Amino acid sequence: MKNILAIALLVVAVAAQAQVQTPQPSPAASVSTNVGLTDIKIDYSRPSAKGRKIFGTDANVVVPFGTIWRTGANNGTKITFSDNVTVEGIAVPKGEYLIFSWPGATEWTVSLYKDIKLGGNTGGYDKTQEAANFKVKSEKLTERVETLTFEIGDIAADSKSAKIQMAWENTSVKFTVGVDYDAKVMKSIEASTKVNPNNYFQAAVYYLENGKDLKQASEWINKAVEANPSAFWIMYQKARIQAKLGDKAGAMATSKASWEEAKKANNRDYQMMNEELQKGLK
């Protein structure tokens, strides 16, 4: 009897492992990127149009205008922020959120929902769980997008914002996420310059580029030059700081020294950068 039971259990185990695998109609996907110092990630399931009309007012559309949509398939779409952010100007704490939307002909309402356990159950939507609710314009695409696609792009030159884009069929919707990394950088500067003097260079350049205390930047860049007196890239930044402080003569002398060291290193880029800086000092 024991042998029969053992054989039966073995057969069940083998059968469980031998399940047929087939492609999912709405496969799982994720997209992530770093904006400033903030990680942004989107997890979603990707339905395909398969010849259907997706958005509109017709009776047979997949997502009728004005009705709540989980903005994806299966358990809906989740977005995660590693730091506090702003979404379309609304402050949103770091964490995980569901993306719900109400499509329209030219404008969509979008919300970030705090209770991720709700999943794709739009019938249980509770406005008190909204972290943000905002309206954005929709755009018509010239090329059809067969499968729902999310992207994180249009990262600003200063890395302080990016656009979240949803595209499906002939419709695109974007919303802006803003990040603030200054507090993190300032804390890092305070900690790292105490440990490693070479970090004075990065701290000084950050102060220069972000309009902070130039006298403090000058102190740091001088320490960086002292630690590495032949570093033409450090001298170049020192010249820029001197110029910002109004010391054109000092900036010119430092820039010329940087040019000479760059020439020795056969670095034409820094020679040209110094030449351009010197033109502005005359």
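The record above closes out task 2.4. Task 2.5 opens with a second protein, given below.
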Amino acid sequence: MGIVLNIIYLIATITFIVGLKKLGHPETAKNGNLIAAMGMGLAIVGTIFIHDLNISPVIYILIGLAILIGSIMGWLIAIKVEMTKMPELVSLFNGFGGASAALIGLVEFSKNVDDSMQAITIVSGIIIGAITFSGSLIAWGKLNGSLRSVVKIPQYNAINNIFFIGIIAFAIFMIAAGEGSQIAIYGLLAAGLIYGILFVLPIGGADMPVVISLLNSLTGIAAAITGILYSNMVMLVGGILVGSAGIILTVAMCKAMNRTLGSVIFGAFGGDNTVTGENKALGSIKTTNPSDVAVMMNYATNVIIVPGYGLAVAQAQHVIHELEELLSKKGVNVKYAIHPVAGRMPGHMNVLLAESNVEYNMLVEMDDINPQFNNADVVLVVGANDVVNPAAHNDPASPIYGMPILDVEKAKHIIVNKRGMNAGYAGIENELFYNSKTSMLFGDAKAALTDLVAELKNM
């Protein structure tokens, strides 16, 4: 039976790798997710029914009930979650993964630990799992607005670093001294939970995509540690894949924001700021209406649409697809400009537009679309803010200075759809709004785009 189980684990591992590969492109991502899920299901079935667990039938019944309840809950959440809530769901899933690793560590620590390596594995799983769990919950709170974007205590850097060093020192002491009391291990768990809170609290909304990627990586590492603990290769490989992919994505997000991981963790920005309709230093703004925008787009040759989080909030992805199709029928060349950190999680805009059946070849990444803004007759910015702010190029004092942005300001005409003049995640004013080529189309994205489509249909 051991050979059969190893073959099942090998097949599951291959499905993880194939699934992860397919997740790299929106067109194949759905199939990749299904393939990886089937591999995980196969691994679970093999572990329960083929692995020599030596447990009573009652335990099998409880395991089956737990799987059934979890599957139903996951399915209901997946089909009902709104696109605007997807980043929050990802944070919760990260947290649950970390909590699982911490709980497994607690259970295993209560047994006899044979050697120091086993103790190191268990303690590491508890620490990383606890940090991931509490940190993910704080990230979830920041994303849904129940927590302030930035909460900084005095000298938080020093406090966080000293606290983390203290956790590591205590863990080393426990392992070296063979201290196996339940009080000590629960104290270590509590310390990990506290550090997770302290770790994420000072980080602002502008850096949330990086935080989500990093926490996702930590969840994978925790899973890999659990795989080592149980000598389970499928858990080990799955954890390594998630952990390494999360690290790669974290580095890519930092690069897209021109920030180092250290500056995100130790130098967070992203407070709240409200801007009035006129700024003495930047000038005044111009407003427009759907009728004028429709005329402008109707006679355009090249139109570029820049989606942002506001598009997701308004659930206007289907309307903007209708606008794109209408313009295409009129002979207008339409493309979508996708910034790597637009939205509240990596790939948020790709997933959002894929939901409305936008053709994948119309989604153009930042490096490829930037040279095309010079030839754009009209650029329509819907709900995006910091990723189109020219201050990243023009203002050395700006916290986003040096961040790669979409070069929207190079277009002939710029239309910005926003509900108001509130700042983005970075908490700073957007120079683009005061550009002489920019006109502000105020209002909810879904309502404004619906009016725009109606005007175009009448032409």
